[in-house]
Amino acid sequence: MFIGHWAPALAVASRRRTPGLGTLFIAAQLVDWAFFALLLTGAEKMRFTPGVSVMNPMDLYHMPYTHSLLGAALFAAGFAVLISLATRDRTAGIIAGAVVLSHWLLDLLVHVPDLTIAGSPPKIGLGLWNHPAVEMPLELGITFGALWLYVRARRPSPVRIAVLAAILAALQGFNWFGPVDPVVTAGTSVLAFIAYGAATVAAWWMGKSAQGASRLV
User: Fold this and answer.
1) Helix (H) or strand (E) holding 18
2) Measuring CA to CA, which of 32, 49, 57, 177 is 20 to 30 A from 63?
3) pLDDT tens digits, 87-104
4) In angstroms, how far is CA 45 from the centroid of its own chain?
C-alpha cells in the first residue's frame, strides 16, 4: 500500500471539524516517515529482495517500532495528543490519531508477513502484494474514491484537484513500474521523504482552496 494510505485522510477531511488536509496527509504516512528516518540510523532495516512478493521487492525484515500494532498505536496516541494541544480540539486529535492507526490496518491487507503485534514474531500480513489483480484496483479505487468524496463535499479548485491527482498517480506508477535499486542507501529514505512531501504539499494546497476549509492545523 502506498497512495492508498492517504485515502482515510481524504475521506475524513470531507467532514467538518477535522484537522487540515495537509496535517491528515502527514498522519496517514507518519509511521512510514518514521520508518525511513529509523532506516537511516539502522534502528529499523530493510533490503531489496526481488521475489519476496510479486509486486514489491522490499524485504521489510526488521521494523518493530513503526510497523508493530503497538508501535503504530503509540504513534497514533502521540499524534492525537499533539493535534489536540495544537488545536484545543479533542475531536480533531482523535481523528488525526485514527488516521495514523489506519496505516497499520491497511498495511495488514497488502504486506506479506512482516508486521507484528508488539515487535516480536509471529509476523503477520494478508499478502495482497502477491495478487496484483486485486491490490492494484483496490489501491486506486480507495484513493481516488476518497478524493471524489472530498471533492464532492468541499469543492476545491479544479486545478489543484488535478495537480494532486496527477502527483498521486505518478507516485503510484513509479512505485509499481519504476526501477528498483539493488541496495538500500541513504537515498532510499531521501526519495521516500521527497515523495511523501510532494503529496503532502499538494494536498495542503488543494485543501486551502476548499469550501469550509479547516481552520485547524
Assistant:
1) none
2) 177
3) 999 999 999 999 999 999
4) 19
Pick the closest to residue 114 from 66, 76, 63 (CA basis): 63
Question: Total domain count for the chain?
Answer: 1
Q: Which three cell numbers stand for residue 201?
A: 504539499
d(Cα 65, Cα 29) in Å, to the nearest integer? 14
Inside any domain, residue 213? no
d(CA 170, CA 189) in angstroms, rounded, equals 18
Residue 215 has a pLDDT of: 60
Can you tell me the distance from the alpha carbon of 206 to that of 155, in angstroms, rounded to the nearest whole number? 10
By residue range, what is the domain housing residue 15? Answer: 3-208
Per residue in 34-72, pLDDT (tens digit) is: 999 999 999 999 999 999 999 999 999 999 999 999 999
pLDDT at position 86, please? 94
Q: Chain-centre distance of CA 178, in angstroms?
A: 19
Give domain status of residue 215, yes or no: no
Angle formed by the axes of helices 132-154 and 90-110, to 10°?
A: 160
Nearest Cα to Cα of residue 43 among 52, 34, 55, 51: 34
The rounded distance, in Å, linking the Cα atoms of 90 and 73 is: 17
Residue 16 banded pLDDT, cuts 50, 70, 90: confident
The pTM of this model reads 0.96
